[in-house]
Design brief:
By secondary structure, this protein is α/β, with parallel strands linked by helices. The chain is 38% helix and 23% strand.
Length: 499
């Protein structure tokens, strides 16, 4: 048993878990590299307790009126808006992203809560009167039951809110397993839900690692799994969850390309490449990690990106634009790609290891890095680095650029920068990627559309939030109804053709 009581605990049945964990994990302050606290790792019994609490709450929550569910969502939206500054500080302290970036994450998360506020409209079914003589046919959408949500470290507030509000508004109950690297945001959100009037047990939070994940994937009372993370784990979650009869949406990794045509505004493109490549220290699945410079755009574009990188303020101060990476292990892994890129023949234009740091330099720091003349066989191109490393690949023509994007095993997000409307329209039609930006480098859809990629960026057939989210968290039922009329009766043993 662990001797100390200084750990972040689970929330089960509406209350903090007061047991003593068998295992804990370290939670770091990425700006200093020091352990800030610890988090309890759930055993199978703790996961089972959370699932049981959710199952017990489902019996009544599924029958809660749409008015009651909507009231909770509107109150949650109000509370989250009022407390977003507090939540941003929590995210920044454990993840490392600067507070302004964390604030942007929460602002986008609010959109998903606002979408869930419209659940009465979203759950409307269809109705056909007199489909046959005095026979009505109508459809209804019902909740699936206890649902599991497994969220990543890079958006500890936004990704849980992609799933949890919609799931709950649809009448489900939830067991949320956040990343053990930055767990406090999920507990904060659970407290806001409770303050908004959500009954005990409807939302439960368990912390931990593979033990907790595997139990959620295997537990017979868990009816669906929503996951965001790397492609190897997404594939594992999808295959394991579906083999246990669950509905699964598993969003995986990415290698997002930004195609820059010769006619593009290169200043705009350079601004976008730096913003989308190095925001959140590159730790986001929609980050631009490859710039495809087409035709004559290459030299000027690389020069402009290099100039802008020099002005990026890296550090923990209020005026800084980019923070550290989330852990020392991850920072070291990302740094190893710099040596790999050089040894494989790419041109290292800007070395992030040399970038000045504002403040304490003992944290998990790595500045923006830029490679040019990157080949498609190099690991800096083939691997999802998930850090502040931007690779420039050169192609002669538009057709070669599209071929490059489509040949990649990932298909999450992409963008084209051009002043040619015809080229942009052709690109959005021909590119084999789930989310496309035209002069927009990070095309994350607004909440009333849905988020998700193609190919190895998505396992399952359902994207996150928006209309896909409502569909994922409900099951459709069709009712054929006839009420007895004295003028219609008699026995007919034939298959009903015209009722």
């Amino acid at each position: 048993m662990i001797a100390t009581q200084n750990w972040i605990s689970h929330r089960i049945g509406g209350k903090p878990w007061t047991g003593e964990p068998e295992r804990v994990g370290d939670v770091y302050d990425p700006t200093t590299g020091r352990v800030a606290t610890q988090v309890a790792f759930a055993s199978v019994s703790e996961v089972d307790a959370a699932v049981n609490a959710a199952a017990e709450a489902f019996a009544s929550w599924r029958n809660a009126s749409l008015a009651q569910r909507t009231t909770v969502m509107f109150k949650l939206r109000e509370l989250l808006n009022d407390r977003k500054g507090d939540l941003a500080k929590i995210v920044s302290a454990e993840h490392g992203k600067v507070v302004s970036d964390a604030g942007g994450e929460i602002q986008r998360a609010l959109e998903s809560v606002e979408y869930a506020c419209g659940i009465p409209q979203l759950l409307k079914g269809g109705f056909s009167e007199n489909a046959s003589t005095r026979v009505d046919v109508y459809s209804i959408q019902q909740p699936v039951g206890v649902v599991g949500v497994i969220s990543p470290f890079n958006f500890p507030a936004m990704v849980p809110l992609w799933f949890v509000p919609t799931a709950i508004a649809c009448g489900n109950t939830v067991v949320l397993k956040p990343s053990e690297k930055d767990p406090s945001a999920s507990n904060f959100l659970a407290e806001l839900f409770a303050e908004a009037g959500l009954p005990d047990g409807v939302l439960n939070v368990v912390h931990g690692d593979k033990v907790a994940v595997d139990r959620l994937l295997e537990h017979p009372a868990v009816k669906s799994i929503s996951f965001v993370g790397s492609t190897p784990i997404a594939r594992y979650v999808y295959e394991t969850g579906t083999s246990h009869g669950k509905r699964v949406q598993a969003l995986g990794g990415a290698k997002n390309h930004m195609v820059v045509l010769p006619d593009a505004d290169l200043d705009l493109a350079a601004d976008a490449a730096v913003s989308a490549g190095f925001g959140s220290a590159g730790e986001r699945c929609m980050a631009v990690s490859v710039v495809v410079a087409v035709g004559t755009s290459g030299d000027a574009l690389v020069s402009k990106i290099k100039q802008r990188i020099a002005d990026v303020k890296v550090g923990s101060g209020a005026s800084c634009e980019m923070g550290p990476l989330v852990t020392g292990v991850h920072r070291d892994k990302v740094t190893s790609y710099l040596d790999a890129g050089v040894s494989e023949g790419a041109t290292l234009v800007v070395d992030g290891r040399d970038h000045p740091i504002d403040g304490e330099a003992s944290g998990f720091w790595l500045g923006p890095t830029l490679f040019d003349h990157v080949g498609t066989d190099m690991t800096i191109y083939t691997d999802e680095i998930f850090g502040p490393v931007l690779s420039v690949v050169r192609r002669d023509t538009y057709e070669e650029a599209v071929e490059l994007v489509n040949a990649n095993r990932y298909g999450n997000g992409t963008a084209i920068f051009t002043n040619d409307g015809g080229a942009a329209r052709r690109f959005q039609n021909e590119v084999e990627v789930g989310m496309v930006g035209v002069n927009v480098p990070i095309p994350v859809p607004v909440a009333y559309y849905s988020f998700g990629g193609w190919k190895e960026s998505l396992f399952g057939d359902s994207h996150a939030y928006g209309p896909h989210g409502v569909h994922f968290f409900t099951r459709s039922k069709v009712v054929t109804s006839r009420w007895l009329d004295p003028s219609h009766g008699g026995v007919n043993l034939g298959f009903p053709q015209n009722m």
